[in-house]
Design brief:
Blueprint lengths: L1 E5 L5 H14 L10 H10 L4 E7 L2 E13 L4 E11 L8 H15 L5 E3 L6 H9 L15 H8 L2
Parallel strand pairs: 4-5
Antiparallel strand pairs: 1-2, 2-3, 3-4
């Protein structure tokens, strides 16, 4: 049985490990610079994001981290799923779908107009899961990012 619950401060080390595992899966392990203190502050200090833990037989096997965004087109807030990671041994057991269903319920409870996330174009297994649950690819949209030195340059600092 899959149990899903809100993350607590005691989960922060596991969340950070899952983030590192996800970055390795996505072929960018060196990109993780977050610390436990940063994750704890974001989730439980300033509360800029929320996280869920998924467990099987009391063992953490997945997490999902999300936050609110806003759509001027719908005039409503939405939920953006930043990360969803399932351990290799728990894949194929419905954990990702259970987490997505749980967050969809939160979106409805909070009167959100959308629930969105990004997926790497080579992660066909995840894309297949997303299509199965009714998600639609927004292939005409391209994510843009400014970070590091480019962010400082853009800000004139």
């Amino acid at each position: 049985m899959i149990d899903i619950r809100p993350a607590t401060p005691a989960d922060v080390p596991q969340i950070l490990q899952f983030v590192r595992d996800l970055a390795t899966f996505e072929k960018e392990p060196e990109s993780v610079v977050a610390t436990e203190a940063m994750i704890e502050h974001a989730l439980f200090g300033e509360k800029s994001a929320e996280a869920l833990m998924a467990e099987i037989d009391g063992k953490p096997v997945a997490f999902a981290l999300y936050f609110h965004n806003f759509s001027t087109w719908t005039g409503k807030k939405g939920i953006y799923l930043e990360d969803l990671y399932v351990t290799p041994e728990a894949r194929g057991q419905g954990v990702a779908t259970a987490l997505l269903q749980h967050i969809a319920g939160i979106a409805l409870d909070r009167d959100c107009g959308r629930f969105e996330w990004a997926v790497l174009d080579w992660n066909q297994r995840a894309i297949d899961v997303y299509r199965k649950i009714g998600a639609v690819g927004m292939d005409e949209w391209r994510i843009q990012r400014v970070s590091g030195d480019a962010l400082h340059k853009l800000a004139g600092r």
